[in-house]
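DATA SHEET
Item: assembly model
Revision: 1
Owner: S.N.
Input lines:
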Amino acid sequence: MKEVSVKTAGNEISIILSGRIDSNNAHDVESEIMSAVSGKSSLPVVIDAEALEYISSAGLRVILRIKKIFPDLRIINVCTDVYDILDMTGFTEMMTVEKAYRVVSVDGCEEIGRGANGTIYRIDRDNVVKVYNNADALADIQHEREVAKLALILGIPTAISYDIVRVGNSYGSVFELLNASSFSKILSTEPEKFDWCVKEYVEMLKKIHSTVVPEGKLPDMKETALSWARFMQDYLPEESGKKLLSLVEAVPHDDHMIHGDYHTKNLELQNDEVLLIDMDTLAVGHPIFELASMYNSFVGYSEADHETIKKFQGFDFETGGAFWRASLAAYLGTTSEKKVREVEDKARIIGYARMIRRSIRRGGLDTASGRAEIDLWKGELIELLEKTDTLLFTRNELEIEASNDNLPLVTDFIEQHLDEIGCSPKIKMQISVAAEEIFVNIANYAYNPGAGKATVRVEVADEPVTVTITFIDSGKPFDPTKKADPDVTLSAEERNIGGLGIFMTKKIMDDIRYEYSDGKNILTLKKDIK
Amino acid sequence: MSLPKKIDLHMHTSVSDGSDSPEEIISHVKCAGIELFSVTDHDAIKGCETITGLLEEGDPRFMTGVEFSCKDGEGQYHILGYGYDPASSPIREAVGEGHAIRMEKLKKRLGFLKDEFGFVFSEEDEAALFALDNPGKPHIGNMMVRYGYAVSKEEAISKYLDRFRAGNAYITPERAISAILDSGGVPVLAHPSYGRGDDLILGSDMDARLRRLISLGLEGVEAFYSGFTEKLQAEILGFAKKYSLFVTAGSDYHGSNKLVRLGDTNLSEGDEYPEGLLRFLERAGFTA
């Protein structure tokens, strides 16, 4: 068999290599190519390696020499063995090398996930394939693989694709996902696991949002949101449009990770491990942008037609709404419905802007049902914009390393919430003193000699105005309320200093309760504020 | 002498398998703006002797060179030798040996063609082949076309000549390295990642190969080479640093017999020279 043939088709020179190119024939292959391409160095050259089984170093040198004459040389349809050689020697870095892709059919396969850019199918017991919506998806696949790797390095449990395949007219990336179920499936088929799902879903969300991403590695979600806000200028009354833009502009830069499409089809339970998938929307930014997309997934998209969510997630509109609110409450660390509603409204502003833009760009204004949906969202958006002055919010919960260095973070966090209700300086100071006693106690003793985390939760209730501060740690069981009160009649030198701290806390606060549950010390302090 | 801005220390003339005569290669080197060059014919130093006699005041700087094809139980290597004294007997004996091996192969090839296919040539034509500096398959192939035994040189080689295995007639790397050293030259491993033909040597294999050759006296590596990717270049530069080896740069130009451009070594003008190359140039009489 001849190892090389050269065709000029259209405006491209195709060099078709086959069999083995080694020191026995490299010279002849080179002469053949040269005589075929001489004088045509302005045309793009592509090497089709579909039938190439092996290439030796002598063959590599021929490729390199062609590349020097045709700097835009591409090699396509490269089999895995040849690709490995090209990769090992650095050829994949200096020219475009496209692998030959396995062809996979997803006919009849179970759909287990769906994201903005593709659909995930299970192709066998151990593997899933994410099929991209667009035919020209190789760059997207590469991007997703890169960001998934980044996320994994930063500590987010995720699956990384190990192969790229051809599916119909598009491409898919293959992941190993053993015996896994999406959270949507669990919620649809095992409703008794609702609370557990909320807990795991929120835990992952907090993990994502506490991950700092090195600068420049991921797109900034604020930029995207700004583009939505600018788009909306043509479709909103002038005042509302301006307000929307100024609200987004006022969101500070945030270098923490957000997933961008965080709904229950993108969370998988594999054996006992929860995995985040569909990473192509990964970005950095303020969590309000994440909450907006979550609102849309569970509520927004189905507001006009409650059946929509069923097709997408498998569970009904009521379940979606309940899951969203329970998750938001747990994420914020609050039981206050008012607080949940407040933050939800902020999320809805971004959520509606996004949905309206999306619908308009997909021709939503051309159909009656599309117009009805857009009008519904627009009405809500205008109303929300009137009553909202900031998109920022504070979570009621802070999870940090239990160390004395973090004490200022804890007191600042608590004071921030006290400021919101206009607490007097005196009470503020008293509460800070109490909180300091408790946190320092955890920092010094809970994990000694090791280290661990502490969670501080602040809850404010109206009528009567009360502040509840909860400290949670997973250290040694310890009930500070059981500690005997010190004898304050003794002189300062004679007193037990540690005991005094908890005594002061008891004096300052109106109620103090201790509970040990699920391996955690939970200490709840309550104070009535006039 | 100040440092040369453009160097190419690996090229072949018609004394071996290049297409340029020594005279032509000098004018091509000048055109390419190369300030320091070396001619490294396979197992031959005749081109260097000719060039030394041809160079004039103001011509590019020249360094004697040679490329030995070597083989031993561990593999095949191309060993370059630079700056040797062409009059010294160790290098003359080694190239003589290489030449004898080549002539022996030629004899066997002609015998093979006669025995297997009944292809015979006139005594004058055979004598003309033996009178060449470096007769190889292409030369026999051309003659076969002339006699009508094959329609093209390529067919002559692939259909007839390649069916003969010339066998293990190479000098050993020990022999080449010590001949270069004993003649006052620097032995350098040519295009290290590409052994010979099909060999692709990387990572720990490269490390083991270099250690062995260094123990035999190897002093440098051709880290800048027209056929290297950045990755291969970086790997060889890494080894040069690890073992304090000289670093050289060469294109492996063969005139019109290969696509390589003269001066293409992947060392760009203006690039900072690595320490191993600076030391090599210093040894050749250049200072920064």
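QC remark: The interface with chain B takes residues 22-25, 28, 30-31, 34, 56-58, 60-62, 64-66, 68-69, 85, 88-91, 93-94 of chain A (CB under 8 Å).
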